[in-house]
Structure formats: structure tokens, C-alpha cells
Amino acid sequence: MLTRFVDTIRQRFSRPLQYYQDICVRCGACIDACHFYVVSGDPAHIPAYRMTLAKKVMQGRVSDGNRLHNWYREAWGQESRTAAELERAMWECTGCRRCAVFCPFALDTALLVSAGRYSLLQEGIGPQMIAEIGNAEVSKGEIIEMIQEFYVDQTKELEARLQKEFAPDLRIPVEKEGARVLYVPLVGEHAIVPLAKVFHAAQEDWTLSLFTATNHSFFVGDMDKARQAAHWIVQEARRLGVKAIAYPECGHATRTLLSFFESWFGDEIAGIERISVVQLVASYLAEGRIRVKSGTFDVPLTYHDPCNLGRNSGIFEEPRALLRAVATDFRELTPNRELNWCCGGGGGLIAAPEMKEIRMKAGRPKAEQIRQTGAQWVVTTCENCKTQLGDLNEHYGLGIEIKGLVDLVAEALAL
Amino acid sequence: MAEITPNKVLDARGLQCPMPVVKTSQEIKTIGVGEVLQVLATDPGSMADITAWCKSTGNELLNMEKGGGVFTFYIKRVR
Ligand code: SF4
Ligand code: SF4
Questions:
Q1: What is the pTM of this model?
Q2: Element (H, E) at B75
Q3: Nearest-CA neighbor of B59 among B19, B21, B11?
Q4: Which residues of A fall within a CB distance of 8 Å from B52?
Q5: pLDDT at A301
Q6: Which of A150, A194, A103, A189 is nearest to A381 (CA)?
Q7: What is the pLDDT at residue B66?
Q8: Alpha helices of A241-348 — where are they, by DSSP H?
Q9: How are beta strands A206-208 and A181-183 bridged, if at all?
Q10: E strands, A132-283, where?
Q11: Residue B48: which of A144, A189, A216 has the nearest Cβ?
Q12: B8-76 sits in which CATH class?
């Protein structure tokens, strides 16, 4: 029963995970912190129970190897029930770590979920699509030369357009050796255009990466592949001799950059600053390198702290400083910052079509929070959150618009 | 290159990452091994994404072309 799961998770069971299992006192403080449990009432969604369930399966308490017992359990559907429960416990989690903020021991359920997902995939349980996209990201470094020329052409076209529309001397350098900042975008020009404008205004010496920051292997807990995909970017940064790597408005990618690059790459990354564009753009404003027209936006707007930028990376004040500079009516969600509700779309769930229904359910606390503010715009700094908020808007009829933070800054630039 | 006649067409125009790849992966499963899926996309990033997806899944990218702001991929299902 679930033998591949058990074999794999045993290998992945680090000391911190063992301590977590030992120290949980079943106080229940985490129960109502999880948006999945709040909307479903399903015990498999209780953070502490996710841990207990994994332990039960690992200890073989579901199956004792006795064939008669196993036959009996099979006949009662116990095995498939446990597998289904485990699947919900590991995949219906966004890794938001809200539970850890409420737990008196800051017990990290998301760390277990990461190991659990990877182990379940060895059984073929879970959305294969997320892993498949992760594999493609690992392969990107091998095909990049094939598309490089095309990519540079494409960027030239975009540059020419922005020179016409925005500033005649705006540049979008690609693979520029010796640039200070390597900006790694997302797929799509929406992740390039606002940054190109802000970099231009700040007179930043930057260059555009051939790669994109997303790392779907990270979502499925496949840390070897996550590291491999990120390694292409580190190699690029070293080849170009840049001083800093800047990541776009993307939560999980930012978390890999700020929390994992150091342990993944050690000396290879020494001396190269790692920074989110949200921090970088806020520093331009604070240092007077860019100016914005204050009060550019006078619609009531709010800010959604993406779990991976806020709770998991501590980027709380920079986006607020930027918003206050450009908007007249900024309203906080309640609660916010480290207590903010997850949007329900994290953990890679956006990329798995079969997860749409649970995503919409799990986003209910977020939808209610937004409604309470009366805001017309919801600003955020993560691509996953943007997609999820857009879907919630439709599902719950919120009548809002979703905006990217750097987009607003770019629109409000005073040149 | 000789004209390629696709067995199925996927219109992924206007979709953002990672949707072109998600849809391509779903659609390829609906055609037979040896058959060809034509994918239309507008996002320039899909060029790298779909090429890399073909490489990692072992499906064969027969051709890719660009015209009128649309990228067209011809992918042969290999397995
Ligand atoms: S990390 Fe978030 S989604 Fe996962 S169990 Fe904790 S609160 Fe729930
Ligand atoms: S809050 Fe922490 S200690 Fe309490 S039940 Fe949850 S995980 Fe266990």
C-alpha cells in the first residue's frame, strides 16, 4: 500500500520534519488558519492532521503486511480511501504557511507537503501537469540557443514600439555583458514592458534574461529539478558578470531566489545580489532615482500580500510605500501582512485544470476580505495570485479589476 | 520543408503562460501517435516554452514559424 510513497518520503524526511512530528501538541491553533479547512470542513485539510496522516501511512499503520488483513482492508476500500485522503492533504494546500504563523511552534506544514507531493507523484497521484511544465523548464537551457536569435528579434520589435510610445532612447538590452542587473521575466511582454519603462526612468544598467523565472518543479517538491532549472539563470548571470539578479512579480520564483539560491548554489552565487523587482523599484523611489506623479490613481484600491512575497519573504512595506506614492485611496485588507488570507491559487494549483473547483472554494475567505474593503482595484505582485484573483472576481461577482504593482508605478512615472 | 497537414489544430492565441503548454499537453493526448498537432500562439514566450516542452516530453517539433504576430508550431506525437 502506497509503498513508493512511503519509500520516497522516508528518504525525504529531514530532521526538521521529524521534530515537527514530535512537537505538535494538537492544540488546534492551526485549524482555522487554513483556508481549505475553513471552507471544506474536511479533516484532511487540517494542517496538523496532514502531518498525522503522513505519519500513519509512513509507519505502515494503514497496512501491516498481513495478507489477510490487507485483503480485508481492500474489501472495505480502506486503501483507496487513505490514498484519496492523502491526495487531498498533500495537493489541496497552497503552501501559504498561514498555519505556521498561528502555530505556537511555527510548525511548517508546507515543508511536509513539499516532500509529500514529490512522494505521491512517484505513485502517479497528483496533477502530473505541474511536473510536466517543471520538466520543460529544466530542458529550456538545452534549447535556448535554438530560439535565442528569434528572441532577440522579438525584443527589438518590442523595443522599437516602446521607443515610439514611451521614450525614444528606451532600450531593452538582451545578454548585455557587464550590466549591473539581470532581469529575469515571466513569459509574455506584460512582464517586460513596465520594467523596461521603470529601468529607463531609473537609468539602470540592466539586461534581459533569455530565461523565465517560473519554477514548477519547486511546486511539486522536486528540489533537484528545481535547482537544475534555476541553475541556467545562475550560469547566465555569471557569464554576463552581473552584480544582481532581479526576479519579476512572481511569488514562488521570488521565494526560490531569496530563500533557496544560497543553499543551492553556494559560492557560485556569492557576490551576486538577489532581489525582487518589488524591492528594487521601491529602492529607486526611496533613493529618488525615479519620480512618480502622486495621486495618479484615485480609485479605491487594496493590496493583496502574496504568501510567497509577504509571509515567506518578508516583503511587506515596499509595495505599500509604492502604492501610497501613486494612489489616493489605499485600503488595507483585514487581516493583512503575515496574517493575510491566501488567495487559494498558490502551490502551482493554477497550472492544474482539475484543481479549478477547489481553487474557487478555497478562495472564499479572500473574496470576502476583498468585498469588505469596497476596493475597485486589487493590486498584487504575483502572477499566480493575479490569475486566481481574476478567477475569483468572475466566480464571486466581485466587480473588481486586478492590477500589477509595477504596472501602476510605470504608468505613474514622472519623466 | 514540405507542407505539413495537421490532424488537429489548437488555438492558444491570447493565452498566457503556462496555458499554451497546458493546452498543448492536453490536446496531444487526443491525437494518435504519429499524428500532428498544429498550435497557434500569440505569446512570444511560447516559442521557448513549447520547444522545451517538446524536448522534455520527447514529442517532435516538426516546424515553427512566425507570421502576422502569430506563432505556429507543428508537433508530432511520438509517444
Ligand atoms: S500551508 Fe496554507 S494551505 Fe497548507 S495547510 Fe497550511 S494554511 Fe493550509
Ligand atoms: S498549531 Fe501547531 S502544535 Fe498546534 S495542532 Fe497545529 S501544528 Fe500542532
A1: 0.94
A2: strand B70-76
A3: B21
A4: 136-137, 139-140, 142-143
A5: 98
A6: A194
A7: 84
A8: 251-255, 261-265, 277-286, 317-326
A9: parallel
A10: 181-183, 206-208, 244-247, 273-276
A11: A144
A12: alpha beta
| ipTM higher than threshold 0.85 | yes
CA atoms within 13 A on the CB side of A392: 29
Ligand 1 contact via A191 beta carbon (within 6 Å): no
Cell of B63: 516546424
**Fold type of domain A3-126:** Fumarate Reductase Iron-sulfur Protein; Chain B, domain 2 (1.10.1060)
Question: Is-contact A157 A127, C-beta < 8 A?
Answer: no
Q: Which atom of ligand 1 is nearest to the CA of A346?
A: 3
Average pLDDT, chain B: 89
Give the three cell numbers for residue B59: 514529442
Chain A partners within 8 Å of B56 (Cβ): 132, 135-136, 138-139
- Distances from the Cα of B33 to the Cαs of A16, A58, B4, B78, in angstroms? 46, 39, 16, 5
Tell me A45's DSSP state.
G
Closest CA–CA distance from residue A202 to any residue of chain B (Å): 26
Beta bridge partners of B10: B39
Please indicate if any CB of chain A lies within 8 Å of the CB of B66: yes
CATH of span A301-412: 3.40.50
For residue B1, pLDDT beyond 60: no
Q: What is the pLDDT of residue A355?
A: 94
pLDDT at B52 > cutoff 70: yes
pLDDT along chain A (415 residues), means of 10: 90 92 94 98 96 89 64 68 93 97 96 96 93 95 90 91 97 97 92 97 97 96 97 98 98 98 97 98 98 96 98 98 98 98 95 93 98 98 96 98 98 95
Q: Domain extents for chain A?
A: 3-126, 129-287, 301-412
- Percent of chain B beyond pLDDT 90? 57
How far, in Å, is the centroid of ligand 1 from the Cα of A94?
A: 6
User: Which residue from B18, B43, B47 is facing A150, i.e. has the nearest CB?
Assistant: B47
B57 touching A, CB under 8 A? yes
Q: Is A414 exposed, middle or buried (0-12, 13-18, 19+ CB in 10 A)?
A: exposed
Contact at 8 Å (CB) between B56 and B75? no
**Partners of residue A351 in chain B, C-beta under 8 Å:** 18, 22
